[in-house]
């Protein structure tokens, strides 16, 4: 397994709708394993393929830090087929480092997906796992959690992140000693 680079806003791959997975092979399984390792090291509770620069509809989630009945899930082509209620949870994101905010989402969801071998999987949850899965599915649709914020706060966060990205890309000036 290998650690992958986590892309951060405003990288364009984060703003694209990811393509459905059509081939369930060793390459996909290796990607999911690498994503899981990267998520744990980061540390995080979820990671979507676009966050590691791969525009495919694949996510890994493990909400066991807050939900003892949870475990690592590798979900391919996940779709929310049912949702109800409302829950507010403090969210952060590995692709939006240094920012957290309360986000309202449906409290109860049912998701249909495929596992890493292409077998159908259905998940019905009303725990923290529901929030994590919804957050990661948003990534597959080119949506970051900051899009759920009010316009003023969202624009401020985006402006700061863009400025930070420009500063990181600009060449470092060497100090001149006279």
From TrEMBL:
Fe cation binds at residues 93, 135, 139. Pfam families: Pep_deformylase. Its EC number is 3.5.1.88. It catalyses: N-terminal N-formyl-L-methionyl-[peptide] + H2O = N-terminal L-methionyl-[peptide] + formate. GO terms for molecular function: metal ion binding; peptide deformylase activity. Keywords: Hydrolase, Iron, Metal-binding, Protein biosynthesis. The active site is at 136. Its cofactor is Fe(2+). Removes the formyl group from the N-terminal Met of newly synthesized proteins. Requires at least a dipeptide for an efficient rate of reaction. N-terminal L-methionine is a prerequisite for activity but the enzyme has broad specificity at other positions. This is Peptide deformylase. It comes from Candidatus Moduliflexus flocculans.
